[in-house]
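2.7 Reproducibility. Because tokenized structures are sensitive to small changes in the input, we list the exact sequence used for Thioesterase family protein, including any N-terminal residues retained from the expression construct. No trimming or masking was applied before prediction.
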Amino acid sequence: MSDAALPPLPTEILTSGPLRVAEEWIDLYGHMNMARYVSLFDEVGYALQERWGVGETYTRETRRGLFVVDVAVSYKRELTAGTPLRLAMRLLKADSKRLVTLMELSRGDDGTLAATMEQLSVHADLTTRRVVPFAPPVAERLHALATVHGALPLPAGHHSRLTGRV
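Resulting structure tokens (single pass, no recycling of outputs):
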């Protein structure tokens, strides 16, 4: 992907459009199933990465993408069917081959934090299935974004297992 093809770098924390807990996400205990949290983080996070220039368009054009190698999920509040949601994503750390992102799932009505997921991803060549460095312009952009996001306060009570921040 050429520099000209890279979208403007959004420095704000990315947020999803409105979401809602679907009835089919509810488990035997009457609340959102724990696996659905991770699935939602994955689906929505993947879409938000497009705005950082490393989403589906990047992968199709370069045959490179992000492989998740570690996650840390923290469930903070129970969610029930019909609850409005919002997902936010920020980049905590970036180097030549790795990204650490923090995703925050909050209630859409009162902003209460329901869950967080930190994710360590590596940049991989989809042909060789090996970890490779980002192209320098991409790495520079991601590092700059991580510098901005990394300076922001973490959610109250959050302890980063992947970066060591509290």
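The chain has three helices and seven strands.
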